[in-house]
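To whoever is on call:

I kicked off a structure prediction for a single chain this morning and the downstream step that reads the tokens threw a length-mismatch warning. I double-checked the sequence; it's 210 residues and nothing unusual in it as far as I can see. Pasting both halves so you can look.
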Amino acid sequence: MAERPYLLLGTSNTHKAKELRALLAGIPYEIVDLTQLDPLPEPVEDGDSFEANAMIKALAYAEASGLLTLADDSGLEIDALGGEPGVFSARWSGVGMSYPDRFRLINRRLAGVPEAERTARFRCVIALGAPPPRGLCGLTTGVVEGLIAHEPRGENGFGYDPIFLLPDRGLTMAELPEGQKDMISHRAIATLAARELLLRLAAEAHDGAE
């Protein structure tokens, strides 16, 4: 039996890697993440969009590792704040600021904003990159619409999940029962689309080897 090709998850975030592994379970690849490799140069995420940053990471890690790489860039867009934090979600208001402090800052800035205008969305873009010369293999996107809660709720999520309210469920992303987030999140939507692309790439590689 031929060995399965490797797929590198371009993240050292254990929460994110766990989500991605669950969503990609069963694909014909041996999945590894950055914590399992010797340290690779960390790419500078200086793009002005989620698409640009996802491509920067996927292509840089693919070239450095020699492996097909899946990388994402994702974040929270709050309409009343002009789309902030956006592409700066992970380092918004300073790299050292804790998420509880960010939650308080967001709600201070939203003081007086009517409930119906506390709209926001989680956006995720996934890039698949192969080592040169192939390069970019594809992009997928996932978006979930919601509202900003007045206070953080829930223990099951990470990042901005505790203040992202899903109006149709009356729950924040961090209050969803175990496993449900992996079915409806922005990362889930983008990853399931990327899964289909990975299956096509695997089929192409198999056909080309025959």
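Update from on-call: the warning came from a stale cache, not from the record. Cleared it. Sanity check on the structure: The chain has a mean pLDDT of 92.
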